[in-house]
Each structure stands twice: as structure tokens, then as C-alpha cells.
Design a protein that fits this description.
Strand content: 15-25%
Number of helices: 6
Structural class: alpha+beta
Number of strands: 10
Order of helices and strands: HHEEEEEEEEEEHHHH
Shape: globular
Oligomer: single chain
């Protein structure tokens, strides 16, 4: 991956002099890889709910019983959620630490996890248990033979995880959201499954993020009567960044 100079991607803080980022920030695969490493792998992201009672009896997307587990993917990474004996939910990469074979191929409930390729076994906490043929090795098992626990937090019906070391504690992010939406009790929200809807929209992620920080388009795109422009006071509209 080629190196980028931060000077090339600075937006002037004075809105009267600010200009958009260069086109390479939206089209260069190396720049996207830089964003993944420095932003997305250090950011709390919502865990997608997969599965339905019709296809996975007893599951609505999250493991809800001791010993239950469910696979999912995020940012192209194979992952799975695992509920331990205390109903605590952990998140792990969905690959064996031996030869990187997928461990959890579908939602299920069971005891330890056994790799379907070579039989390496892990417990509820992702710890190495056994591997036939590896019994007499020196300095084995090592820490790297355990599954790596990834940061995961549950907030009402929402679950978030981080692929790396979070830039900020989840609690801090939750506090910011509560301050921004006083009177809304997210802990009391209930998850209601609806038919899956997938929207594929071309464009860079920054374009879609900026759409929610731009109030200038509201009076045109969401104009009245009865539109969003009628429901908010654009004169006092503010965007909060954390």
C-alpha cells in the first residue's frame, strides 16, 4: 500500500475557504485500505442481525441461550457470536487458529467448538482445549492457539463490536448518544424482525456520511408540504461531531 501525505487530505476549518477532498480519497483502493486500518478497525460497528425463525429455529440473529452461537460477517471479515454458560456473549474470528478453516457454518447450540477440518477443539470462551496429534509438542498450546476475543458491547437490542482496539470506550460513545437524544430510552427498545431489505447504493462511504451532516439539501430534497423541511427549524439546525 502506498503512503499518503496528510497534507493532501486536509479540509480547511474555515467553511468559507474549505474545499472537498481530492478525487483519490474517493476512488483509490489504497486510500480505502488506509481508512479501514485507521478508522473502521478502531470504530464500534453494529452487529448485523442475520437469520429468521423460519430458517434458523430458536434464533433471531443473536445467540440467546448458553452454548448458542451464530456466524456473521462485517467488513468482509468472517466472525461469530458465542454465548457462554453465564449467557455472556463473546465475539471471535470465525476461523480456526490451526489452518484457518471456518468454525461455525450456521447457527446452532452445542458444547465445545470442534473444527470440521482437523478437529481442533475450543471451549465456550474460545480457549484451546485439545488437538489430536499435537499432544507432545513443547510450549504448546500457546496464547495464539486460543481464539482471539474481539470487543463486543450490548445496549438494549443493539450489539456493537470492534475489529481492533477501539479509539474510545463504548460507554463514552453511548453517553454521547444519550446526551444527543434526551428522553429516548434505547434500553427499552425491542427488536422486531421484518422482511430483509437490501439496498445497494454506489458511492463512497464518506458521501453517505456527509449526507447526514449537510443541512443545505433538506429544503430542496425534503421540501414541503409535509416534508422534513417543515418538521425542523433550519435556522437552529446543528450537527454534532464526536
Amino acid at each position: 500500500m502506498r503512503e499518503f501525505s496528510s497534507k493532501d487530505f486536509i479540509v480547511h476549518p474555515d467553511i468559507r475557504r474549505a474545499e472537498s477532498l481530492p478525487d483519490s480519497a474517493f476512488t483509490d483502493p489504497d486510500f480505502l485500505e488506509l481508512e479501514i486500518e485507521t478508522i473502521f478497525k478502531k470504530t464500534w460497528m453494529l452487529v448485523p442481525r442475520h437469520g429468521s425463525p423460519e430458517h434458523s429455529p430458536g434464533f433471531s440473529g443473536f445467540p440467546n441461550k448458553p452454548g448458542s452461537r451464530v456466524p456473521f460477517s462485517l467488513m468482509g471479515k468472517p466472525l461469530f457470536l458465542q454465548s457462554n454458560s453465564k449467557r455472556e456473549i463473546n465475539c471471535f474470528p470465525n476461523v480456526c487458529t490451526h489452518a484457518w478453516h471456518p468454525l461455525v457454518e450456521s447457527p446452532g447450540i452445542g458444547g465445545s467448538i470442534v473444527c470440521p477440518q482437523h478437529g481442533r477443539e475450543f471451549d465456550f470462551e474460545g480457549r484451546f482445549v485439545s488437538h489430536r496429534g499435537f499432544e507432545k509438542l513443547e510450549d504448546f498450546p500457546r496464547e495464539s492457539d486460543n481464539l482471539r476475543k474481539l470487543p463486543v458491547e450490548n445496549w438494549g437490542p443493539f450489539m456493537s463490536m470492534c475489529l481492533g482496539e477501539p479509539l474510545a470506550p463504548f460507554k463514552k460513545s453511548a453517553e454521547n448518544i444519550k446526551e444527543s437524544m434526551p428522553g429516548i430510552d434505547l434500553e427499552s427498545f425491542k427488536y422486531k424482525p421484518v422482511p430483509d431489505e437490501v439496498r445497494e447504493v454506489d458511492g463512497n462511504w464518506k458521501q453517505h456520511a456527509w449526507n447526514y451532516m449537510d443541512n443545505y439539501h433538506i429544503r430542496f430534497v425534503h421540501k414541503g408540504p409535509g416534508g422534513l423541511a417543515d418538521a425542523i427549524d433550519l435556522q437552529t439546525y446543528t450537527t454534532e461531531l464526536y
